[in-house]
């Protein structure tokens, strides 16, 4: 990976699976949520309940275009998903039960998150270098704000844009229009760093944003031009050399 010729005007970071990792799966939050509603396990085995939730989730998000609707109201989307699963499990239209399960799942979403190695080092270095930073993340406000607060990430970013709060998520153009407008820079002056080849790489490239693919597992680089990043890193500290900054800085 070569060093950029010019200093970036701004840098956009993805949150999940880039700055932070997750030890668990979405099903782990479901298991903890299910534990708060004993009526479920009195009638069904855990795998049956998880399978019903998984199937309902698949129906809710089967088409990426559907994110344009449910994404605007994550709590409502999750409530609908839970109600769908409960109906399939034979609980009918039990709104109170659905709300208890939804709340249990929401409470446990994101608890298994952790900061990836080098995340604070590169954020400190970039902030000390006065390069404007933005955070662009999909997800609901409650969950994402909880992670940001838990890891004290807010002081690093001039702009924090969360899908539910801005009314659009990656890879939709409205999300990128919003972050570019907030940064007030031409796309070609900006770099996007993320793990997702469509949401973070291909979508950003459509707006002339330069891209860095965070690829810690060493996945095969894409051949498609639309998804081909400008650079690839396996670890976040590589960004220090790439952007010509050092990590000898204190937390903000």
List keywords for this structure.
alpha/beta; Rossmann fold; 2 domains; 11 helices; 8 strands
Describe the structure.
It is a single chain. This protein has 252 residues and is an alpha/beta fold. It folds into 2 domains: 10-23 and 113-243, Rossmann fold; 26-108. It contains 11 helices and 8 strands. It has helices spanning 26-34, 38-43, 46-60, 74-88, 95-108, 119-128, 141-150, 163-166, 173-183, 197-205, 238-243, and strands spanning 10-13, 20-22, 113-115, 133-137, 159-162, 190-194, 210-214, 231-233. The protein starts with 9 loop residues before the first strand and ends in a 9-residue tail after the last helix. The mean pLDDT is 86.
In brief, what are we looking at here?
The chain is an alpha/beta fold. The chain is built from 11 helices and 8 strands. Strands 5-4-1-6-7-8 form a 6-stranded parallel β-sheet, with helices on both faces. It has a two-stranded antiparallel ribbon with strand order 2-3.
Strand content: 5-15%
Give the averaged pLDDT, no decimals. 86
Instruction: Provide the CATH architecture of the largest domain.
Output: 3-Layer(aba) Sandwich
Please identify the structural class as seen in this structure.
Answer: alpha/beta
SS summary, helix count: 11
What number of structural domains do the residues give?
2
CATH topology of the largest domain: Rossmann fold
Low-confidence stretches: none
What helical percentage do the residues reach?
40-55%
Series of H and E elements: EEHHHHHEHEHEHHEHEEH
Largest sheet: 6 strands, parallel
Strand order of the largest sheet: 5-4-1-6-7-8
End-to-end Cα distance: 29 Å
For this structure, the quaternary state is single chain
- Estimate the global geometry from the Cα principal axes: elongated
Number of beta-strand segments? 8
CATH superfamily of the largest domain: HAD superfamily/HAD-like
Radius of gyration: 20 Å
Q: What is the CATH C-level name of the largest domain?
A: Alpha Beta
